[in-house]
Amino acid sequence: MNLTTIKDISERFGVVPGFSDNNAGIEASLIAAAAGAAVIEKHLILNRKDGGPDAGFSVEPGEFKIMVEKLKKGEMPEESKIKIGLGRVHYGPASATEEHNKRFRRSLFVAKDIKKGERFSPENVRSVRPAFGLDTKHFDEVVGRVASADIEFGTPLSWDLIEKEENHEV
Predict the structure, then answer these.
(1) Which domain CATH number covers 127?
(2) How many CA atoms lie within 13 A of 91 on its CB side?
(3) Which of 9, 93, 153, 166 has the fewest CB atoms below 10 angstroms from its CB?
(4) Does 47 reside within a domain?
(5) In this structure, is the dihedral angle defined by the CA atoms of residues 44, 47, 104 and 127, taken in order, positive or negative?
(6) For the segment 138-169, what is each residue's pLDDT rounded down to a tens digit?
């Protein structure tokens, strides 16, 4: 899992590092905390048997309680799991599967038909899945700008659909 990257994130960027745990069980969260994660995000489900897209890697309340107790005590999984989890410093997808799964992230899409010259607004631009449009970090840059063409509802937003502004690189 290359959790050694957590310490590098803290040192390189001067931030409080965290870990978003989309793994089954609680071991990855425990290893991440030992590797320096100050914040742990873990999916919680009331009953895994109810199913759902996150059920396979979510924890039930009892498991969550155990995880929190172990985190507070600094308890760790067996040493072999720790070595596997720490890995090396690595940024970006660790496999072709992870690269493929990036498409499930959010991006900016047109939420209403927009005419050429019309301004983008929170009403006509939305952050939705899949990640075929502009990254959501550009939302504030896009709002207030002008459409360079007529754009149909449901179109992934791209820089070529946005009029260029002076002194603004796209």
Answers:
(1) 3.90.1210.10
(2) 4
(3) 166
(4) yes
(5) negative
(6) 999 999 999 999 999 999 999 999 998 754 44
